[in-house]
Structures are given as C-alpha cells and as structure tokens.
Amino acid sequence: MKLFSSLMILCLLSFSVFAAISDGTASSISLPKRLGVSRISNYEPRLHLPTINQFIALEPTYEVQPYGVGRGGASPYSPRGSARVRSVVSYGYPTAQVSVKTKDLPASSDINAQFEAWLVDDDSGYRLSLGTFTTQQGGVADFRYTAGTYFNEYDVLEITVEPFHDTDIAPGNLVMYGKIKPQSINAPLSYKINSIYTTS
Q1: pLDDT tens profile 30-79
Q2: CA–CA gap between residue 174 and residue 124 (Å, rounded)
C-alpha cells in the first residue's frame, strides 16, 4: 500500500512538473526554450539597421621618391593599404569589426612613431579612434578592431601617424584614407511606403 501511494505521489508530481514547463514557468531543468522576461524582445523582424560589409582600398596622401642608382634612379612609389569594415545588428545586439593591412609605410622603428586608425563622420566631424599600431620593415602591419557597436554613421576610414606616448587627442598627419559607401535601411516595401506618407 505504501509503495502504491508513493508511486501515485510521484506520478502527480511528474504531471505538475510537465505542466509547469509547458506553461513557460521557470524551473531548474535546462531547456532550450527561453523562459521569463528573456522571452520578451523589442526586435522588429521587418526592419534592420544598415549592414556594412565592405572591402576598402586605402588611398595614400603622399608619394615616396627613393634614392636610386643608374639613369633616372628608382621609380617613386606610394604606400598601399586595404581595410575590411563590417557592422551588423542582429536581434538588437550590434557587432562591428575593422581590419587594416598596410605595406610600404615607413617602419615605426625608422621614424620613431606609430600609426592610428580613425572612423570619421563627415556630417558632424566626429572622429572615433580605433587604436594604434606599429609597422615592421617594409611598412607591413595588420591591425584589427572589434567592439559591440555599429559603424552606420561613419563615412571615412583614416590612418594617421602619431608619436609614441602621444598625449594629444587630436589626430596627426593623414597618410592613408578610404571612403565607406553609404548603406540603405533594409526594410520591406510596405514599411518604406508608409514612412514616405507619414513623413511628407
């Protein structure tokens, strides 16, 4: 009789646990479904902020005239560089990445200086520093920046030369730059039409 009563109590408890789980009540059991306030989201699936995923060829601002031998000497050359700019917003969480590769910039050991990457907003003039990096012989560098933000407001990626232990927040001389192409908001046609009528 005691065994039967114990089995009945166990069955009733099992039913209550399954009912609680199906109703979305939080429990100590690890489940793939999200429970509680984390189920609530302000994410609008029809509207996304602009997504940036661009390869940018960096343009130099000066030309190097090397010393050469022979008739005419060596040909002048310019620093070279490229960048990958990526900015996405998924379910309300932004992710941004910038990678910069350079060649033929002055070596940091030769000029006793470093380089700094900036993102610039043309409308406001605001400049966001992404950090500094040094170059090896041949002007080779590989700089990477990652943050939980977005780059939709920026128009230009700039590289400046800065002294070591720089205390001046203003940018130094510009050596390379690249334009970020503007992106359009990814929204359904009905949303865009409604926006036109409500704003006009």
Answers
A1: 444 544 444 445 545 555 566 888 999 999 988 776 655 555 555 567 88
A2: 19
Decide if 23 is inside a domain: no
Domain at 139, CATH number: 2.60.40
Cα–Cα dist 127/156, whole Å: 10
Radius of gyration (Cα) for the chain, nearest Å? 28
Q: Which residues pair with 85 in a beta bridge?
A: 54, 98
**Where in the sequence is the domain holding 112, given as residue range(s)?**
52-65+77-179
Residue 24 domain-assigned?
A: no
**Over the stretch 77-133, which tens digit does the pLDDT of each residue have?**
788 999 999 988 777 678 899 999 999 899 999 999 999 999 999 888 899 999 999
Residue 39 covered by a domain: no
